[in-house]
Specification:
By secondary structure, the protein is an alpha+beta fold. Helix content is 36%, strand content 19%. Strands 1-2-3-4 form a four-stranded mixed sheet, with helices on one face. α1 packs parallel to α2.
């Protein structure tokens, strides 16, 4: 994973860069480490010397084959904003990775083909299901008349 740690309108010490490596990058690489991914950590002083809630942290994670995740956090302390943004990024990245691994299409745990291959549903046959037919079976014929006859009777 390509990691870029930079400061906006402030110089970053070696301590804060190591803190970012240990608390954000190391946690992220525990469950996701792709060479094509890019993590950008930007720490900045939003208001300069005016004070207040002004230490902001922008985290951007670009994962191939998934959405780009952008997290922004602002506090008085750059370490606190890095921690809060890092926790949010880890949660969002886990959710996005789970979304990537989920197969497209049917969202059921056991698709119908699996049930048929196992020989039916528990406690009954496939024919007992609504609209269920066994493989190779022909549709049942109606014994109480044809459809055209039913339509005439209703009119």
């Amino acid at each position: 994973m390509k990691v870029i740690i930079q400061g906006k309108q402030m110089r970053l010490s070696a301590g804060i860069k190591n803190y970012a490596q240990e608390h954000v990058v190391a946690q992220l690489t525990r469950f996701y480490d792709n060479e094509a991914a890019e993590l950008r950590v930007e720490l900045g002083d939003e208001r300069g010397s005016k004070g207040g809630l002004d230490k902001e942290c922008h985290l951007t994670l670009r994962m191939p084959g998934a959405r780009t995740i952008q997290i922004e956090e602002t506090t008085q302390d750059p370490y606190a904003s890095l921690d809060a943004a890092g926790d949010r990024l880890i949660r969002a990245a886990k959710k996005e990775i789970e979304r990537m691994r989920r197969p497209p299409g049917r969202h059921k745990y056991r698709p119908l083909a699996t049930v048929v291959a196992e020989g039916g549903v528990p406690g009954g046959l496939v024919e007992d299901l609504p609209n269920g037919r066994a493989t190779g079976a022909t549709p049942r014929r109606r014994t109480n008349g044809s459809r055209a006859g039913n339509r005439k009777a209703k009119q």
